[in-house]
Amino acid sequence: MIDAAPRAPVRWRPAQLAGKRAQMATAATLVFEVEGWPGHRAGQHVDVRLTAEDGYQAQRSYSIASPPENGGRIELTVERIEGGEVSPYLVQDMLPGDALELRGPIGGWFVWDAARDGGPLLLVAGGSGIVPLQAMLRHRAAGGFDDIPARMLLSARTVDDVIYAQELQAGTAGFELFTTLTRGTPPGWSG
User: Fold this and answer.
1) 86 occurs within a structural domain
2) pLDDT tens digit string along 1-20?
3) 71, 81, 129, 163: which has the fewest Cβ within 10 Å?
4) Edge-to-edge, what's the strand order for the sheet holding 150-156?
């Protein structure tokens, strides 16, 4: 169903880093407080813009990891790309209190609203492609929609490359996780 309601223009908003936690050796989840955040739907993304002291700007798009129920707190999980302009700064160097600009939310074709769309929910992800799907799982949990069955097929290189590993293993009622590893398995692996 396409939402035909007119939307406000998407504009740049100041965002301040409130916290950061490692997800794996090359990825981190950054929690931003966003001034005037209009809300989002699970599956949407934002553009992030960094401005250097000399005025040079770089921007990249990142999926939103947090559920819509988080209000003005937006979580982005970013995997560091070697040689990248934005991801190394976000993952390695950005500290709580630092600021940047966000534009969004953007995208409406790959979203899930539990109350409107129902289920069951089948999610297929590889690597950092899990981020918008994790927002959907978090929306399912935060909104009290554990009665909607959800399954995820997740592919990663190794067990150490699974983003959100602890959260996924903890799971919620009615959630099943199936993981495949493509480059190495631990002893006794039966996945």
Assistant:
1) yes
2) 455 555 667 899 999 999 99
3) 71
4) 121-126, 150-156, 175-181
Sign of CA dihedral 22, 24, 26, 32: negative
| Number of domains composing the chain | 2
Q: What is the pLDDT of residues 66-125, one digit of tens each?
A: 999 998 899 999 999 999 999 999 999 999 999 999 999 999 889 999 999 999 999 999
CA–CA gap between residue 164 and residue 24 (Å, rounded): 8
* pLDDT the model gives residue 182: 92
Q: Which of 106, 122, 145 is the last residue of a domain?
A: 106
Same domain, yes or no, for 26 and 92?
yes
Say if residue 28 is in the same domain as residue 54: yes
Q: What is the pTM of this model?
A: 0.91
Range of the domain at 143: 114-181
